[in-house]
Write a structure and sequence with these properties.
about 250 residues, mainly alpha, 9 helices, about 0% strand
């Protein structure tokens, strides 16, 4: 490791990542409400995410943080928590995929949707559940603060969407929902022992959301049930995991 992890270094990387993404949006004239359109997904979504991924790979390689970011050193929590999170997120993903109008999505469009989902899953998990978690632990923060800071930073990633066409109220709601979902992704890291699981779940969630939105399909009460069920389960499970940390060995 070329540089010991600290919150200061991690937060600086976080800010630089935001600059990469939103500067690219500005240059390309991105409209948040058209991110997944067939004619715009390549420049509005895949391009900034690709540049963000290149930036994160360079940073992690230069700092030598790959192992710490990808592997959970504080693995713990009930094993069943993994399956509970996978059940509610899996239900959300499945219903969105089933509900999408696939006749309106071409093969090329589908390829970009898959690529965008893979990139956003890697980028946002490597940044928040990876770099920020490792940095906070390197600064000797309590695990409760590690969860809180990384999940809040994940939520705040979505606030600048208000500058690119998303109504401010909706952007603020996104921050809250992302914070809750991020808590579940933190649980997946802690219980599975690897960042690969939250990367996969995050990517699948966004692929399902992107696809349904791109196809113009309507939502349903069942989808909302699994969506908000994910938020509730996530906050309950993160409390259970953090309380277990405080038990005497």
């Amino acid at each position: 490791m070329k540089l010991n992890p600290t919150w200061t270094v991690a937060f600086f990387i976080y800010i630089l990542y935001l600059v990469v993404i939103f500067a690219t949006w500005y240059v390309t004239g991105a409209d948040y409400l058209k991110l997944t359109g067939a004619d715009t997904i390549a420049s509005f979504t895949v391009l900034p995410l690709f540049l963000g991924a290149v930036f994160l790979v360079f940073v992690l390689s230069h700092l030598g943080w790959w192992r710490e970011v990808m592997t959970e050193d504080r693995k713990g929590g009930p094993g069943w928590a993994l399956w509970v999170v996978l059940a509610v997120t899996g239900g959300f993903v499945l219903l969105n995929v089933i509900g999408a109008d696939w006749t309106r999505i071409t093969a090329t469009h589908l390829m970009f949707l898959v690529l965008a989902a893979i990139l956003v899953g890697f980028n946002e998990e490597a940044l928040t559940r990876g770099i920020l978690v490792v940095g906070a632990r390197g600064s000797k923060w309590s695990e409760s603060l590690v969860w809180l800071s990384s999940s809040l930073a994940f939520g705040l990633l979505h606030l600048p969407n208000a500058l690119f066409g998303l109504p401010l109220v909706a952007a603020i709601a996104q921050v809250g929902f992302a914070f809750l979902a991020g808590s579940g992704l933190y649980v997946l890291r802690r219980v599975s022992g690897s960042l690969l699981v939250p990367i996969a779940v995050h990517g699948a969630w966004d692929f399902a959301t992107f696809s349904k939105g791109a196809s113009g399909a309507e939502g349903s009460s069942a989808i909302q049930m699994f969506q908000f069920g994910t938020y509730i389960v996530s906050i309950v499970l993160v409390i259970i995991v953090l309380r277990r940390d405080k038990r005497p060995s």
